[in-house]
Amino acid sequence: MTAHHATSVAGSITAGNRGGTRRFRFQPAWLFIAPSLTIILIFIVFPIFQSFWYSLFNWRIGADVQEWLGLGNYQRLLGDELFWNALRVTLIFSIVSVAAQMVLGYLTAAALLRDTLFNKVVRSIYFFPTIVALATIGLVWRFLLDPSIGLVGGIFAAFGAEPIGWLQDPALALPTVIFVSVWKNLGFTMVILLAGLTGVPTHLYEAAKIDGANSRQLTWYVTIPSIRPTLLFTTMILTINSLQVFDLVYVMTDGGPLFATDTLVTKMFREGFTNFDIGYASAIAWVLFALIMILSALQLRLFRYRDVD
Amino acid sequence: MLISLRAAVKWALLGIGVIVILIPFIWMITGSFRSEADLFAAPQSLWPTTWTLHGYQSIWEELPFLRLLFNTFIFAGVTTALLLLFDSMCAYALARINFRGSTVLFWLVIATLMIPFQVTLIPVFIELFHFGWLNTYQGLIVPRATSAFGIFMLRQFFLSIPRELDEAARIDGAGHFRIYWRIILPLSKPALATLAVLHFMNLWNDLLWPLIVTSSTDMRTLPAGLTLFGGQHVTDHAVLLAGATISLLPLALAFFLAQRFFVAGVATTGLK
User: Fold this and answer.
1) CATH number for B121
2) Are both B187 and B133 inside the same structural domain?
3) Is the ipTM reported for this complex over the cut 0.95?
4) Which of A196, B28, B142, B242 could form a disulfide with B32 if both were Cys (CB 3.0 to 4.6 A apart)?
């Protein structure tokens, strides 16, 4: 790259030119970047700082003077039983649904590994829920599990059992939402793990077989170690996504019954957009942000974006 | 013997999985043709005793359903088009132009990749309030019209295109804009298609964003409209099931026609 001082008038547009520090020189790159950069600055970068700023106030939309609270909102969080509840529900939801998705996703991927026509059809079926709206299919599941009109309750009743209020019982609501989440995302996990599994070099298996390994040993000593990066990556992605769970809970239970399914984002949504407690909702957002940043930093450390520049 | 028993168990479990995956969809479709009385009388049945179209008739009256459908197409379609344009432009500059600040910009993109959109939701809502953009199409579309993931992915793709092609074009007198439009974009069709499918799907399905940006029923998208309608006391389930069926149809059709783009799109991303 040349860094010569421009003597010509501005308007000679040459790529790779760098203008002098004082003289304006047109750089075409900025034309290409302008739309994205403007949107990123206005709708992502500025808001992320703004969010923290709000969390230091008792912020009300449109007020002339905002009441400074310092870390007051964060102190309030520590004493808010419903915040701890939401954190606990979010963590249980994430850990259980991610573990279930990883195990079931691995088993389906391994079972459907070979590229036969039959396997491809079965894979498509498992993948299909991934493309539908969580909100829409959550609504369908809510009806399906309804004790009076739902298919599940109907089948229970047909066998003489009392229909169960899956989403009305505080003890069952969270496991039920987790089940539907796994149902929805299993195909996603399967597809990523399939990509990992097809990348395992076959000569590894052949070598192990010559050494007399049985199929369980092949799984534990060849397959799993070979796809360890994929497994870690998938776990991380799924965890980060699960921590942000909103749609499914909002549609199926709206956090209830008795806050049994209230997650960080549903609580943030309620505080921010129902109670208009902007400062407090922002503090919740920052707790979520901190959780996700810790995980992302871990992810970066573990994988390092291999970047060719 | 042991092998075949294992195979039998494996196929039985996979079969159960297939049934569990498909039942909600089948129930949704057949349920949309059932009367409320039929649902109450025979909830154990997957099949209507009598078929009725009243769900598909009432949905247009009980909700401005045509408007919701239109809004969803506009929101998902226009935003996807802008996303592809802006992301590819930005990615072109990052991949092909040496300029002061490109490294900083690249790291800015990587950093924004990690910011969950829920964290910026409240300030963006207040910004839109001050712009007077709440409950408008520009409010729905503009903040979503670029994605760090798209920029990152396209930049990586553009880097894989041989630079000799640009240089040949430059000798022929082509400028950056022509190289971008005539060489890089046409060579990137698979990546652009994958990204388009992914974004369109996510936008079509999005709930939280349209829920907070729009406030009148006329401006809602399908997921938000159906959710709020279903959040009230439901007296006629067939209407909602009909709405759900119709709202799934476009993506389901696209999936049958271009499954590989869906799989590729989902496989390349961790962003939901």
Assistant:
1) 1.10.3720.10
2) yes
3) no
4) B242
CA distance A76 to B233: 34
Shared domain check, B72 and B182: yes
Question: Does residue B267 fall inside a structural domain?
Answer: no
Q: How many domains is chain B partitioned into structurally?
A: 2
User: Any CB–CB contact under 8 A between B73 and chain A?
Assistant: no
**Exposure string for B173-200, b = 16+ CB within 10 A, e = fewer:** ebebeebbeebbbebbeebbbbbbbbbb
Q: Render B213-247 in DSSP notation, one character per residue.
A: H--SGGG--HHHHHHHHHHS--S-HHHHHHHHHHH
A106 CB within 8 Å of a chain B CB: no
* Residues of chain B positioned with their CB less than 8 A from the CB of A48: 115, 119-120, 123
Instruction: Assess whether B40 and B78 both reside in one domain.
Output: no
B183 is a domain residue: yes
Walk along chain A (309 residues) and give the pLDDT tens digit of each residue.
Answer: 334 444 343 444 444 444 445 566 678 889 999 999 999 999 999 999 999 999 999 888 777 788 888 888 999 999 999 999 999 999 999 999 999 999 999 999 999 998 899 999 999 999 999 999 999 999 999 999 988 888 988 888 888 888 888 999 999 999 999 999 999 999 999 998 988 888 888 888 888 888 888 888 888 888 888 888 888 888 888 998 899 999 999 999 988 899 999 999 999 999 999 988 999 999 999 999 999 888 877 776 776 544 433
- What is the Cα Rg of chain A in Å? 26
pTM of this structure: 0.88
CATH fold group of domain A73-303: MetI-like fold (1.10.3720)
